Amino acid sequence: MYWDVKFVKPLSDYRIYVEIEDGRKGIFDVKPYLHRGILRELQDVRYFGQVGILFGAVTWPNNQDIEPETLLAEMVPVDETDSATQKAT
User: What pLDDT score does 59 carry?
Assistant: First the structure.
């Protein structure tokens, strides 16, 4: 689907860098969600770093995920130069 995540990388300060199948790239801040229900476990930086992709969605091992609509609505776009830097770090 157009919103499927094809690449995700954890960043400092509870942010993630994402690339979407349709070409969009951006940074999503997870901090506003860290005190909500099952997402509290993401406060552990080591666990937060285990972010991955399952069926095109950003997920963590214990079934936490970010809804695609939320991800797309709230991620801050980055340009090509910024995305190369995000992948390298």
Answer: 97
Domain 5-88 CATH class label: alpha beta
pLDDT tens sequence across 41-69: 999 999 999 999 999 999 999 999 998 88
| pTM of the model as a whole | 0.86
**So where are the chain's domains?**
5-88
| Token digits of residue 35 | 């005190």
Enter the DSSP assignment of 33: G
Provide φ and ψ at 35, rounded to 5°.
-110, 15
Measured CA to CA in angstroms, residue 86 lies from 13, 28, 31, 49, 63 at distances of: 14, 13, 19, 15, 25
Here the tokens at position 64 are: 């936490």
Residue 12 is which amino acid?
A: S
Contact 60, 40 (CB under 8 A): no
